Structure formats: structure tokens, C-alpha cells
């Protein structure tokens, strides 16, 4: 884990992130700082503690921090975490059947053959109420029938992002404003610092195996299921998979640094994604309400996949918490 001196108005030499950029919202309490990038998909750009020592100080990042270049490029995939609305992960061939019609999401600028992560992560969010330790972000999608691939349902989403001491809480909420039922899913996509000693612990029951397009084929056993329960090295398996039967708690630990962060989630964040590619620095442990491609799941698999439909006017809200610990 890289360490660096940092002052709230200066750059973090470990990331080149200039946190006094006026486009950012900086929250702080005690030695903890959270940096939010509303214009970059309502993303979190950094979440860290400054450890002050007699003659120096060092930075402990709980999420992988963004860089100045990532912010300049407005690239959510290089942020610390970003929201997922109105579905999580991929949809096969960017299309599915719903309400007796084909919903075709191709051509909306996603850039992926299989539509990825919804669209809210690629749009700016509006800043709402704000304090020294919290900020509310708002996003509203009004469908445009003339825009190719546009999501054809009207909805409003929000995030309340706050520091509670050194812990981070994110409350995601949505309201359907459509006149007809709307298929829906949400989540957050956090990246964590990955070292040769990073360990992930989570109680899960089974893994969705996937094809070459990272689309699920079947739910079943895998060595990662038992490994996660006992503390799995981030390098143990090459993973980009959904897990079911998650107890809504996962810990990412750096034992050699004597520290960890625990993610806890409320229902309906009943599914967990672990993205740990081989020979790569990326690591994601994602809380989501639905598995990949759940809108195309057959009737028998829909409940297991987290398939959900919001009725006109229906609202849904649930919180996520990240709690750091240092020995």
C-alpha cells in the first residue's frame, strides 16, 4: 500500500489527486476524508485516513483512489466507486424482453456489446443538501424516444453519502416515475487497493459460473465459495463472478498492514460480485440487488437472480456501510 503526505488543499502524491478541485465535494471529520465527484457519474473519488505521526503523516486509502488524469477524463471506471442504476453489470446483447416488447439498449453510448452497469454512472449528478460530513446527489432520467438505445422508463435516483466518524455510509434510493412497471436493479461498484497480501472474507452459498462474455450460465459450487468463508487471497482465483446467498457482509483486509475495511449492506443488496482478474491490480467487491443479465433470466431463475420490477410511483431505498479497522 502506498503512503504519502497529504493536506486537504494539496495533491496526494500517491494518486496525483488534487482535492481542492472545485468540481469535487470534500467531506471530512477528524482524520478521515471523503472526496466525491458528482460530475463523474456521482462517483466517490477517494476515501482515506491521514495517520499523523510525530514527524510525519501518511495516508491510508480504504478504496482505490482516483487520479487527476481519471478526473480529467471523466472516467468512472477509474474512480474509487460509482453507483449502478437502473441495473447492475451486463445485459446480454444489450436487449431483453419486458411487457410484451423488446427493450433495446444498443447505441446509447455505452460502448459495450453487452450493455454494462446502466447509464447513471455515465451522467453527471446534481448536488443537493450538503454539510461538512454529508452530501446528497440527485439524478433523474427522462426517456427520449428519439435517442437510440435510451432506457424507456422515467425514474429519479439519489445518493446520500456521509461520514459517520471514520465510517462511510451510502444510501441509495429510487422512485419510479413511469406510468407502467419498470424492471430495476441498483448497486455500487467499489474498487479496493490490491496488494499481494489482500484477503477477502464473505459468507456466500454458491457462485454463478460465467461464459467467455462474463454472462452467467449456471449457479453452483466453486472453490471460491469455501475460500471466501475462511478468508480468500485476492490472487487465489481469476474471478468476475456473482455470488448468491451472501449474508450482506464482506471484509477486505491487508494483514501485513494490520488493517481492514468491512462492507455491510441492507436488503435488497442480496448479491455480491467479486472482480479479481489475474495479474491485475484491480479488485472489486460489489454489493448489488441483481445478478448479471437478470432481466434475461428464465422464469425459474428470476427470483434467484434478484429480478425486480418497480410499479408506478414505487420507491426503494437501502444503505451500504464501509467501516475501517486498524490494529
TrEMBL record:
Domain of life: Bacteria
BP terms from Gene Ontology: carbohydrate metabolic process
Gene3D superfamilies: 2.70.98.10
SUPFAM superfamilies noted in UniProt: Galactose mutarotase-like
InterPro entries reported in the protein's UniProt record: Aldose_1/G6P_1-epimerase (IPR008183), Gal_mutarotase_sf_dom (IPR011013), GH-type_carb-bd (IPR014718)
Any one Gene Ontology molecular-function term assigned to this protein's record: carbohydrate binding
Protein known as: Aldose 1-epimerase
Amino acid at each position: 500500500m502506498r503512503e504519502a503526505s497529504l493536506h486537504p488543499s494539496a495533491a496526494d502524491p500517491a494518486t496525483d489527486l488534487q482535492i481542492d478541485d472545485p468540481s469535487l465535494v470534500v467531506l471530512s471529520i477528524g482524520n478521515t476524508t471523503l472526496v466525491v465527484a458528482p460530475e463523474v457519474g456521482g462517483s466517490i473519488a477517494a476515501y482515506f485516513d491521514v495517520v499523523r505521526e510525530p514527524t510525519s503523516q501518511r495516508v491510508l486509502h480504504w478504496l482505490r483512489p482516483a487520479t487527476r488524469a481519471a478526473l480529467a477524463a471523466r472516467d468512472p471506471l477509474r474512480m474509487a466507486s460509482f453507483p449502478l442504476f437502473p441495473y447492475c453489470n451486463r445485459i446480454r446483447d444489450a436487449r431483453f424482453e419486458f411487457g410484451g416488447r423488446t427493450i433495446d439498449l444498443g447505441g446509447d453510448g455505452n460502448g459495450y456489446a453487452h450493455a454494462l452497469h446502466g447509464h447513471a454512472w455515465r451522467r453527471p449528478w446534481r448536488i443537493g443538501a450538503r454539510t461538512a460530513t454529508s452530501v446528497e446527489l440527485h439524478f433523474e432520467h427522462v426517456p427520449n424516444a428519439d435517442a437510440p438505445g435510451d432506457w424507456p422508463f422515467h425514474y429519479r435516483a439519489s445518493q446520500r453519502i456521509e461520514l459517520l466518524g471514520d465510517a462511510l455510509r451510502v444510501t441509495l434510493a429510487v422512485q419510479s416515475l413511469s406510468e407502467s412497471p419498470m424492471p430495476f436493479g441498483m448497486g455500487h461498484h467499489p474498487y479496493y487497493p490490491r496488494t499481494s497480501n489482500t484477503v477477502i472474507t464473505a459468507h456466500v452459498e454458491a457462485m454463478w459460473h460465467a461464459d467467455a462474455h462474463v454472462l452467467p450460465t449456471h449457479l453452483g459450487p466453486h472453490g471460491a465459495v469455501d475460500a471466501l468463508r475462511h478468508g480468500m487471497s485476492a490472487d487465489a482465483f481469476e474471478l468476475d463472478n456473482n455470488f448468491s446467498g451472501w449474508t450482506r457482509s464482506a471484509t477486505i483486509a491487508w494483514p501485513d498492514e494490520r488493517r481492514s475495511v468491512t462492507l455491510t449492506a441492507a436488503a435488497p443488496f442480496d448479491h455480491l460480485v467479486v472482480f479479481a482478474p489475474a495479474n491485475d491490480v484491480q479488485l472489486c467487491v460489489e454489493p448489488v440487488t441483481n445478478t448479471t443479465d437478470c432481466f434475461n433470466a428464465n422464469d425459474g431463475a428470476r427470483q434467484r437472480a434478484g429480478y425486480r420490477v418497480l410499479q408506478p410511483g414505487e420507491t426503494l431505498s437501502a444503505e451500504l456501510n464501509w467501516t475501517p479497522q486498524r490494529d
